[in-house]
């Protein structure tokens, strides 16, 4: 990285699970660098969804390095997720025809309910010791399939954890880390966010900032996707021997299936 920027730059890993992100600085200048970032980073930057993209360079080995303006600010806290501008930015993302067109051009396959169910079935076939709850969850997803099969498709971030939301010193909000984004029902993002961060009594108000009414259909779709996500995570952690996390997700799945959350 230093060779790419010049000897006057200092580059250090930025952390994270992929090890592909870096922080670079030279004097008062500071950049966020990433190797092989999302191919639609330019569109995200142009729409003000992520910090401004400054340049892109392709290395001899084919890797692509992107440099973004460094954000002087902080990650959102869990308690910040009820902010109106969080709802507004997520609505802007879901409504973006430019993002959707970009996904279609790069051949992104929408994450449909049928694909989700087939993926879950495949994971369950690899583990014949899973608890009966997992089969009950799958039966629910199959029984409620008609509620979600004809839903609208938009670009979803798919990892709306509060750590992926950043606000700068000028109170400008960004949603970063787009590596897992795909085309899906907006209820996927909405369900994960509302179930995790917003009390049920405040869903209607939060969704007003988003620009959507809290209908029974939306409630059922959000519950479907949150249940599918919980089952997938429980299976994932079981398969890797992460017993504590698997138990936590299994407990959450139980509350979803039996209607206590």
From TrEMBL:
GO MF annotation: an example: kinase activity
InterPro entries assigned to the protein according to its UniProt record, in alphabetical order: Aminoglycoside_PTrfase, CcrZ_PhaseVar_Mediator, Kinase-like_dom_sf
Domain of life: Bacteria
SUPFAM superfamilies according to UniProt: Protein kinase-like (PK-like) (SSF56112)
The entry's keywords: Kinase, Transferase
Pfam families: APH (PF01636)
Coiled-coil ranges per UniProt: none
Aminoglycoside phosphotransferase domain sequence ranges: 14-223
Protein name: Thiamine kinase
Organism this protein belongs to: Salibacterium halotolerans
